[in-house]
Amino acid sequence: MLGKINLDRRRFLSTAAMTVAAAQLGIVDCAKAQATGAIRLPSEGGFPSLLGATGWLNSQPLTAASLRGEVVLIDFWTYTCVNWRRTLPYVRAWSAKYKDHGLVVIGVHTPEFSF
């Protein structure tokens, strides 16, 4: 019994120590970012071409160059998918709320069935 208590205590203390260390590092990084005036995110690669799109609704065809400097949310959806139907109100709300702040929402229909 004593061994289990010591093991539980060690797990708790190591988790607490890692949490405190992570918080301290986060505070330091946040302070550095605030001091420089901007937070630099790592580059995950270039924006892919949109030339493969077969049709555009509610917009002229977009290009990677025309979207440069914008925040782009690409929403892959299927008309019959319940998960998509549940997220649609949120994506629409984000689009309405943040469109004047540079958010561009691109919905990509990925049909699962022929209908």
Principal-axis shape: extended
How many helices does DSSP assign? 2
**Describe the biggest sheet?**
2 strands, parallel
What is the CA-atom radius of gyration, in angstroms? Answer: 23 Å
Major β-sheet strand ordering:
1-2
| Helix percentage range | 40-55%
Terminal-residue CA separation: 63 Å
Approximately what portion of the residues adopt beta-strand conformation?
5-15%
Can you describe what's shown?
With 115 residues, the chain is α+β, with helices and mostly antiparallel strands. The protein has two helices and two strands, in the order αβαβ. The protein has helices spanning 2-36, 82-98; strands at residues 71-77, 103-109. A two-stranded parallel sheet has the order 1-2. Strand 1 (71-77), helix 2 (82-98) and strand 2 (103-109) form a beta-alpha-beta unit.
List the topology elements.
Layout: H1 2-36, E1 71-77, H2 82-98, E2 103-109
Parallel strand pairs: 1-2
List keywords for this structure.
single chain; 115 residues; alpha+beta; two-stranded parallel sheet; 2 strands
Summarize the structure in short:
With 115 residues, the protein is an alpha+beta fold. It is built from two helices and two strands; from the N terminus they run H-E-H-E.
